[in-house]
Amino acid sequence: MKRFLTFLAALSLAACDDGDLTLERLNFDDTVVETPCGELLLYKIGSSREESLMIELQGESAEIFNTLPADGQPREYTINNSGVKALYRIFDGEVNRNYFCNEIPPIAPLVIEEWFATGGTVEIATNLEADDNDNLPASLEGIVVNPDGTINREASQDTDGDGLPDYLDIDDDGDNVLTSQEIEITNTDIVFTDTDGDGIPNYLDTDDDNDGVNTIDEDLNGDNNPANDIEVGNTEPNYLIASLNIATTLPVSRRTHNFIETYTSTIAITDGFQLINGSQEVKYDVPRYEFGTVTVEVTTAEQQASEF
Asked: Highest taxon of the source (predicted)?
């Protein structure tokens, strides 16, 4: 199995109640998530480029953003100003990503103000959505959801028995014709084609034309794609024409399956978020601060290598 990670980050700005003591400047619309120098550091840079809000989780890695907690509960880290910190800094010039990635602090810009959280809890709640992009919603592909909202992959429908549930399988019936090619989309409606009229739609039918030869075996050119085996003079592939029931003599393997898992982590500081400086002056004080969200897309390729 190969896993290719694409890091996408989007951090949203939190609004405060009128009764809260608010920062003079809290402009973090241009936001970035980084994992510099082996330590997990989440930070946002203000629109002025001269201020930043940071959360540091020493000993953690970016893996927390593309995995689910074993207990299904949000991950929690108590702010202690040692291994877990929340900091707000103002600089005497523009700051960029390099500032946060250097093990040795750069000479410039200089920090002219630093405010740190006195306590609170960093809470990271991660949800997973998976999709095979076959134009069928998971709700129509036999997905089973546990009471806590997590997906029960093992109990979900697996039509072809290849170990990959239909909601992650680009070829639900394992006939080497993609599910997206065996259904039709008319406007916003899904039309389930049933060529042989046996009551089983093509995307779940291993012998689409009911000619006694399985669709996967009507791949005469041996490229693992029966959809492009079309006799001269015909407009439809052989696997949809019952009178053409010639089976290939070449070895046939199932296609590589690709699906996308999207992990969305919502980050908040709970149990009180107060920023003070070394003189114990209070800069910011709210019960909860929504730091933002991190989205990670993991594209997985599973090779179904069995031959028929």
From this structure: Bacteria
Q: Are strands 273-276 and 111-117 parallel, antiparallel or unpaired?
A: antiparallel
- pTM value? 0.72
Half-sphere exposure of residue 141: CA atoms within 13 angstroms, side-chain side: 26
| Closest to 148 in 3D by CA, of 74, 65, 64 | 74
- For residue 288, what are the CA distances in angstroms to 22, 84, 101, 112? 12, 17, 28, 26
Return the minimum-mean-pLDDT range out of 7-11, 234-238, 304-308.
7-11
Give the percent of the chain with pLDDT over 70. Answer: 85
Task: Confirm if 105 and 37 have CB atoms less than 8 A apart.
Answer: no
Query: In the β-sheet with 256-270, what is the strand arrangement from edge to edge?
Result: 2-10, 289-303, 256-270, 121-131, 75-78
What's the rounded Cα separation, in Å, for the pair 268 and 143?
30
